[in-house]
Amino acid sequence: MSITEGGRIPVHRFSHGSRVPGWDDAVDLTKPPAVVPDPGTTPVPKELRRTIVEAMQRYPDRRSAAIPALHAAQAEYGWCSPEAITQVAAVMQLTPAYLTSVATFYDMLVTHPKPPNDVFVCTNISCSLRGADELYEAMLLAAAENPNVDVRSFECLGACDIAPMASVNGEYIGPLSPDDAATIVEQVSSGQPVLPDKQLSRRPCVDTGTGPHLLFKDIDEPGLNTLEVYRRRGGYEALKQALSTTREETLNQLLAANIRGRGGAGFPMGRKISFLPKGDMVKYLVCNADESEPGTFKDRELMQKAPHMLIEGIAIACWAGEIDTAFIYIRGEYDFQADILEAAIDEARAAGYIGENVLGSELSFSLVLHRGAGAYICGEETGLLDSLEGKRGNPRLKPPFPAIEGLYDGPTLINNVETLSTAPTIILMGGEKYAELGAENSTGTKLVSVSGDVQRPGNYEVELGTSSREIIFNLAGGTFPGREVKLWFPGGSSSPVLTKDDLDLPYDFDSMAKAGSMLGSGAVIVVDDSHTVLQVAQKLAKFYAHESCGKCVPCREGTNWTVKMLQRIESGEATPMDLDLMASVQTHIIGNCLCVLGDAMAMPIGSIIEKFRPELESEIEEARLRAGTGLAEDAGPFGNADEFAGPLPVH
Ligand SMILES: Cc1cc2nc3c(=O)[nH]c(=O)nc-3n(C[C@H](O)[C@H](O)[C@H](O)COP(=O)(O)O)c2cc1C
Ligand code: SF4
Ligand code: FES
After folding, report:
1. Fewer beta carbons within 10 Å, N or C terminal of the chain?
2. Is the CB of 555 under 6 A from ligand 2?
3. What is the CATH number of the domain that holds 351?
């Protein structure tokens, strides 16, 4: 296939804030303006056209179909070739330039020719602690001579419980070892099922339950993902109960439960609903199922095994908030879970739980599942809204907050999968009873994803306020024999790190905040003493540099500088002064960005420098010895700081 197929040079993506070569060239004003291709003279395969048209019909604004349409074009042609993009543009009546700008933002959309089979090896933090970098090398080697297999390293795929893992044409497999690489390549290129025993889809939940199980009750019951079994278990009774009372009464139950959002920010769900303006206008609900925070994989298990619980929760929230149009934005990599959800939505619609006058009540709402295409920033609520509107997933300036001006500029409630899935339980238990569970200001139970250096990684449902030691040692099996906890992230990779001295802290929002960290999405990543903090910091910084959308300077430059400063330590060029400089860069990022992605790197990196400075200083000295750059104290007042004059790294 020609690289200049269609007469244009395909644009490669580098990171979400692309520094494509030529990105800062002056604009060529002599170029003809971008035009929408003429549908009359642009041939489009019938099936592709039908898929795109159907996708456009699902949304109030046809542009929202950009990602589904590009996914379809990529499936047809193997990549988003200029021809494919022109065809999508002709059907959607957009310019190819617009669609190219969308395609180049997302990791799963590829704008260059590639082999037909995809192997995404996760090399993010939890997988890397368990040997992912060696696995990735082995995979590259095994596929080197095979033109049918495209091996790429990927950021957290939301399956840290099976680390190290890979997604093979969408099928999640793990835990893997480098010895599996040859078999994977052989099986995928000959069209066989890949390592069936290691497929995540067959794995039961590790939490067999000692604590109160509200969300995980009988979670592995066969067929729970179907309407029949869900209803047999009392499913949709909460919705019936809510609909038999007023919207106000339903909202009062959610307010009394005081459930704080489970997606990261911890804002109370009931209060968020009460911020929505009242009255006759289109209001939206968007369920955030992007789940891309490294270490987090709880929503995946919920959606796969109990999709109707989420749908019922969405219906209850729509009732409480007078909402008529709902979407679930699911990360593109969760293909398997998206298929299950789609089937469940169809079943629920056919049974009258979605649509006009649900169960004969005044509730009428629509629900559409929207698949993303690989970008962590689309988990940030306003980046998600732009992405759902069919654009690059750039966050928006707040205020206005989505409750006032969100999707298509309308009032929008955004909640996480786990938050919404809890609504049926709250209605059945009653808000006040639910609030008796957990800790003060941290009511109820929480799904905690535990990964990294523990013996039984997985999702556990615990009452908020449970001791962190209980979660890490009793439930997740603790560190491996002979190893100790060096540090742990209590709320995903963006939470400031804690140490072994913090293991007895109650696991709840306020205790984590008091300890200088946060509960975040409820993802505990444990790092034992076999790893260096430099390794951990490098993984973090590279991830955030890759995921920065590039819209604001402190985040775009600060994440890249941090990567470079950490590389200087590794290559023996740094002095302890670099640690001060790096700490100061983090301080300048925090609070100075448009969204908190910048802070999400700066907070954990800052905490690592603060808590592990002696180890980093020894790393600096040891690396200098290895590289033969002499003692740091002899390197002069600025060390090797001249290096900073060089160009910034390009991904
Ligand atoms: C960079 C970034 C990534 C985020 N990723 C997610 C995510 O994957 N899933 C999620 O529910 N919330 C995520 N959030 C939080 C959302 O912005 C938002 O607060 C949340 O979806 C609200 O739902 P909740 O109140 O139920 O927690 C992210 C925030 C940031 C800043
Ligand atoms: S902090 Fe700024 S550059 Fe970074 S992801 Fe958010 S909007 Fe984009
Ligand atoms: S799946 Fe690899 S770090 Fe999460």
Report:
1. N
2. yes
3. 3.40.50.11540
Reported as a single tens digit per residue, the pLDDT across 60-93 is 999 999 999 999 999 999 999 999 999 999 999 9
Distance CA 121, CA 511 (A): 35
Residues 133 and 159 in one domain: yes
Structural domain containing residue 266: 227-436
What is the number of the ligand 2 atom nearest to the C-alpha of 593? 1
C-alpha to C-alpha distance for 48 and 265, rounded to whole angstroms: 40
Residue 431: which pLDDT band, with cuts at 50, 70 and 90? Answer: very high
**How many A from CA of 270 to the centre of ligand 3?**
32
552 lines ligand 2 (CB under 6 A): yes
Check if the beta carbon of residue 358 is closer than 8 Å to that of residue 315. yes
Q: Is the pLDDT of residue 1 over 60?
A: no
Whether 387 and 414 share a structural domain: yes
> Among all chains, which residue has been given the structure tokens 């969405």?
314
Q: What is the Cα–Cα distance from 469 to 521, expressed in whole angstroms? A: 18
Side-chain-side CA neighbours of residue 497 (13 Å): 25
Q: Which of 280, 298, 279 is nearest to 288 (CA)?
A: 298
Quick one: pLDDT band at residue 124, thresholds 50, 70, 90? very high
Q: What is the per-residue DSSP string for 218-283?
A: TTT-TTTTSHHHHHHTTTTHHHHHHHTS-HHHHHHHHHHHTPBPSSSS--BHHHHHHTSPPSSS--
> Which tens digits make up the pLDDT trace of 591-632?
999 999 999 999 999 999 999 999 999 999 999 999 998 887
Residue 214 lies in a domain: no
Q: Does some domain include residue 416?
A: yes
Residue showing tokens 């999709």: 307
- Say what the pLDDT of residue 24 is: 75
With the most atoms of ligand 3 within 8 angstroms of its CB, the residue from 134, 451, 454, 540 to mutate is 451
Q: Which strands, in side-by-side order, build the sheet including 523-528?
A: 458-463, 445-452, 523-528, 485-489, 498-499
The three-state DSSP-derived secondary structure of 337-388 is HHHHHHHHHHHHHHCCCCECCHHHCCCCEEEEEEECCCCHHHHCHHHHHHHH
pLDDT in tens, 208-227: 877 789 999 999 999 999 99
Binding site membership of 556 for ligand 2 (Cβ less than 6 Å) = yes
pLDDT of res. 19:
65
